[in-house]
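Before relying on records like the one below, remember that each one covers exactly one chain. Contacts with other chains, cofactors or solvent are not represented anywhere in the record.
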Amino acid sequence: MRKEVLGEHHPDTISSINALAGIYMLKGQFVSAMTLFSSAYEARKKIFGEEHPDTIGSLENIAILRQSQADYEKAQPIFEKILQLRQKHLGGNHPDSIRSIASLASLYKDQGRFDKAELKFQSALKLQKENLGENHPDTLTTMDQLSGLYQQQGLLEKAFQYAEASFKKRSVVLGEEHPDTVASLGNLASIYQLMGKYELARPLVEKSVSLYISILGRKHPSTIIALNNLAQLYQFEKQYQKASELFKEVYELSSSVLGQSHPNSLISLNNLAAAHQSQGEYEPTNSLWKKSLKTTNMFLDQVLWGSDNETRQAYINMQRKAKAYLLSFYLQHNRPETAREALLFSLTRKGLLLKITSEINTVVRAGHNPQLRRTAKLLNQYKQKLAAMMLKGPGNKEPQDFADEVEKTQQIIEKMEAFLGYSVQQFRRSKISVTPEDIKKSLKADQLLVDFLVFNEIDAAKSEIVHETIIAIVVSNDKENPFTIVDLGSTSVLKSKTKEFLSEISNPESDDGIEYLDELAQNIHSILWQPLLPYLEGKKTVFIVPDGIINLLPLNALKDEQGRYIVESFHLVHLSSAREIALPSYKGEQTSPVVFAAPVYNDHTAEMAAELKKTKISHNSIFSGISFDPLPGTAIEAQTLMKAFKEKGITPRLYSQKEATELNLSKIKSPRILHLATHGFFLTPDTDTDSSDEISTDMIQDDTSVMKPVENPMLRAGLAFTSSNYGFKGIKRPDGTDGVLSALEALTLDLVGTDLVILSACETGVGDIQAGEGVYGLRRALQEAGAKSVTSTLWTISDSGTQKFMTGFYHRILEGDPPQKALRDMQLDFLAEEEMSHPFYWAPFVMFGVF
């Protein structure tokens, strides 16, 4: 009517269109809602301009709808734009500006970025209490959202405090039957459930379901969530049949309203699978987990490419509980079919983030899109800036000002990472799917794949963790039974023994002696390797895909009952994912080998010395107090390598002494081999960032942990180059570099097409372990930058020992041996030589990747 009387561009007509869109959204008719919201936005933009409050309000509706459909990559820039415009025109204390802060926090929560979400929620809540009062509806909404955030993190006491306060105040201010009050009621009920207070939860859950159905209808997303909570209550009370029936209805409703790959639909699908699993029903459980894996992979494919690195990790972390239930089911129903499915899980999830980031780098560097190359170049500059900031610390700046600057830089990096990922999706190689059958076909008769997986084993009937366990998926080209799961038991003993083993093996002068080291080597062998022996008969090459603590374990140094090292019996090839043996490697252009050696760590100019005297070095810098001594043996090592290369008609580029600078390293482009003979470092975090598969005992809800910039292991691992001892104190060289290459900065190197990177340095293979993603440190950074294979070390060995090992290693490579074979042969040579036979000298070298 208004359209006919007033015209389609009249403000009242647009308001009606907007209202109708809101009704469609409430009914779950999202396509119609988006069409009308977009129409209203375009009309208001044309009439009022892009920055008018009404136009911004229409844009906000689009963002909210995008978020409700889990289209987070499109919602985020809209929410950020709205916040910026409102703060610009309305001021930071205006209710709309504050609400925009809370909206952005809500998006972060949905993405699993809990640390960022909490900061934004708390900021919004503080402003709302100060400017609107403690009983204002906006204030109460933020309190309820904070409660939900803490609930997802398992912080139930904090969640309860906010939920109870929000519910009581909403009941008075809005009335008991207002949808927002019902939301608080459901939130409170959910917390009681997680606390195990089922008698308190039941009446609240049932009341919230009844009210939602009467107010919003059975198909509204909020009603569906309430029904899911009721099904969870049935499950906790061991009313399995009722739980299964209701979970099935919830999944069907959610799929029809939100779509099968929406996070809420996936949660209900996983809960349905877990409900059947708790009753020991094999067929329906197996079918549902297959469907879950396929659908979740579709969702991850949609969201990961267009996200920044931190958000990608958060999305993966949110899958931990589903992973625990799924792999527990496959283990507890161990048969060829479930072994194949477990391998499929590994193929689609393990090393997934490494695959995405390395392919983005490959496409950007190999392509001819000027905008992508410009963005990538700018991204590299901001990564270098962030690394330099963390190296120096706050200095003379106020701590809060420094933190704000770090946050701003991090946000710029995140936006550019997301843009690059979104832009290169159509070119990516990983559209090629690798199946378990592809892995089987890729293996020769004398080869075996052993893919380790670490997870929390679940007793589904009790919804309880049994223990953190480790399994090995064994794959051969056997026609009868190519896929097998081997249960290696709890990780607790393995972890304690590995810690002792690493301490002993890295100290050849240990008071405990070689006998104790041998005992530990045999103990770990009995846990990890002996159960695999029946499958290793007749095998020569074993492809290893480690997980968890195994990433830091020198498997070659384990001993069998006869006192033989694994390296003597098998050729181990380490991979980040089993996909590597089935996918063709990227064939890019290569340049001559490059060698960096013997940097002058104390090199400085008079200006640098003067700067050091007047510069205040922050005690908060994570690098304060670090310095390195010269490595004279690396100069000899480099000259020996240069001679060996030239004898084969190869002319590498050598950067030694004062030329071994960070700037020169940044200029290299796809060398066939990159040899870095210098000090490496990895600093342990101030706080515990262990990201093992911790899991609470509730049903399958979101779960995540996110690394803060200061805690980011890619900022705590690196290599030292010329002038680094000044760089650690925040003093830069005249060329603008600091001589310290963090793993974050190593991501900016152009190694696309590089066959092999050798880190001839101390502890370059260590870092923070991320479940399913290996070690976050130098090795990973260089692989992300494009290197096909990376050799690193697990502990510090002698300068002369490294020199001798590398000389023999390169001699074999130049004679035509594959690098993995050359590495093993050198380890065997050292083992046969009495002075070098202790595994301290030969076992730290580990190579990842094949080419």
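The chain has 36 helices and 16 strands.
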